[in-house]
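Protocol step 4 of 5: obtain the predicted structure for the target chain.
Materials: sequence only (see below). No template structures provided, no constraints applied. The aim of this step is simply to have a reference model before the mutagenesis design in step 5. Sequence pasted as it appears in the construct record:
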Amino acid sequence: MKINIIGETFTRIPKSEEIEEKKPRIAVKDLKRVQEKSRKRMMKIEGYSFCDKVRGILKDSDKYIEFLGQLYKYSKGVYDLTEFLNLVDDKVRENERLMFELDEFLESCEESGDRCELRSLCKSS
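Step 4 output (structure tokens):
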């Protein structure tokens, strides 16, 4: 609504109740895409966190690189889960909490079918 006062035209600012609230509309497919990206990002964060813990426990860069190589081969299907867990260094196997985290992480990768995420994690750690 325009108001004319002494030759000047002003636009009246609408009251808050007159303003129609426009809610953002997100398509279901866009929401699913965003959720998938978020889930993958969280998996990577969990993976990096786990790898940092392994690095701290092994304290030997050669052993850590060997662990990442074994994890990578597992992710490509060269090793099955039992073979991979048998190859994991004793220091890692002795740490119950770390083994629990490893089981949880690998299980979440398997459930979501994201072995490729596991491979990218091994390459970038």
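Step 4 remarks: The longest strand covers residues 2-5. The helical segments are 28-58, 61-76, 81-87, 90-94, 96-112, 115-124.
Proceed to step 5.
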